[in-house]
Amino acid sequence: MTAIIEPRLPRGMRDILPQKMLQRRYVIGVVERVFERFGFEPLQTPVLELQQTLSGKYGPDAEKLIYDARHREGKEDLALRYDLSVPLSRVVAMNPELVKPFKRYQIAPVWRAERPQKGRYREFFQCDADIVGTSSMLADAEIVAMIFTILRELGFKEFVTKLNNRQVLTALGEYSGVAPALLPGLYRSLDKLEKIGRDGVRAEMLKNEIPDETAKKVLDLTELPVADLNAWREKFREYPIGIQGINELEELVQFAREMGVQAERLQIDLTMVRGLEYYTGPIFETVVTEPKIGSLTGGGRYDGLVGLFSKNSLPATGTSLGIERIIDVMDELNMFPANLPKTVVDVFVTVFDVARRATSLAIAMSLREAGLDAEVWYDFDGLGKQLRYAAARGIPYVVIVGPDEAAANVVTLRDLKTGEQIQVTRGEVANVLKKKIERA
RNA sequence: GCGAUCAUGGUGGAAGGGUACCACGUCUCACUGUGGAUGAGAAGGCUGCGGGUUCGAAACCCGCUGAUCGCCCCA
Which helix (H) or strand (E) holds A267? Predict the structure, then answer.
């Protein structure tokens, strides 16, 4: 006998068992329907990309997390995709005939070699929706409105989409007078304001070699009331890019409101940064307060990305929803609908004995023909065992055909939840079942 | 990459240095036209891996690996 191979999973990756798949399918279904309702078309791209397609797009920190992939004898340097926006930009550059604005969604796994922890996996699904080919803030607002719609439809009550604009951050950098090399450190520290407070940020900035007066100067600025955008415009008088950013934000919020997004769901946060390097304009991030899990969605405008793959640059904006985080939160808050089935199977057809086998098989096939998901028993066991199986599987209905039923040309239809049994003719079973299932 | 905690059959837990138990689950049989029941039985662990201390280690010590949770960063 050969030694058993210990069954293990790569770090940070998991199997999604059938019951969990049903939850996922429910969430993905909602997301997909809303995406399409907003006019986005499906797109699929390979999980592997050429390394050169991905490198240099995300920033040095993120770049380290990309998985390399190569065939033993292959000549191409390949990598597992890190997100869906860069592949999209590649697709758009390769297919210039696509009608603009090009709106597509993609729900697919991406890989990041991070240290796994709560709400963080090395393989996870992103649900991306992006709009390529327009600079209008209406597009950004639509993305925000769509996030709002999806989360609301999934039953989320407490969530906030934080908004900022990279141009504001750029202006902030100019205003601080900090050397460009130190700017990433400045932004990163600033991003933690909510988490570690003013003093924490100051300490953090000092660690990042930012002079204390500069830190103070920047922090003072960020303490201007967000509600008073004019005060910000005033401060940015000499930094037109900042004014531009503020204007965009204002427009974005107004448009989103016009699309019915509640004001309390939007929060301008001029210290919110987001790590990916390719963002150029508005950036958004959705967080929930209850379980501490990081952001549920993240996105923004990346007007320069397509231009890296084509002479004809195109503006683009979009967002990504993290399905596993959404599921983790919904699980924790018990947000899944009570009637979410435990199995795809609608009905189980028992096999009474050898003589009745053909009848059972025929009934099962006719139920399938009618569009029902039906299962039959494979052996000749007592009804008790068969019912126990159906119950354990969570199958809602069972069809029983024994000698009595066969003689009367009917079947017994048992509701496993209530224990209720009725007799119907073989011709009616499918329709009766369909009605019952519809009502459930 | 850094830090903390943990590591016992599929799952959850017990065994205060002396031959590894319990529950649930799984499987089999009985109850032979009706379910998560009951009864009887079975399978399943070199106690994560490797060393050490000891007459003797699941337990104590060291190393490794893995998981979880933080940090960094992120969906």
Answer: strand A266-268
